[in-house]
Amino acid sequence: ICGTLHSVDQYLNIKLTDISVTDPDKYPHM
Q1: What is the DSSP string of 1-30?
Q2: What is the pTM of this model?
Q3: Do 21 and 30 contact (CB within 8 A), yes or no?
Q4: Domain tally for the chain?
Q5: Can you give the residue ranges of the Sm domain (predicted)?
Q6: Which of 3, 4, 5, 20 could connect to 9 by a Cys-Cys bridge, CB 3.0–4.6 Å?
Q7: pLDDT, average across residues 11-27
């Protein structure tokens, strides 16, 4: 998880890392 993410995005990305990236455009770092 990048440290430059917003608080809301950080929580979303934590959940996405456990599942999968369904929107690579919004999460290019994934």
Answers
A1: --TTS-HHHHHHHHHHHHS--S-TTT-TT-
A2: 0.19
A3: yes
A4: 1
A5: 1-26
A6: 5
A7: 61
Residue 2 corresponds to which amino acid? C
Residue 12 scores a pLDDT above 60: yes
Residue at token pair 């999968």: 20
**Residues across the chain:** 30
Kindly report which listed range (1-5, 15-19, 20-24, 26-30) carries the lowest average pLDDT score: 1-5
Range of the domain at 8: 1-30
Q: Which two tokens stand for residue 14?
A: 């934590």
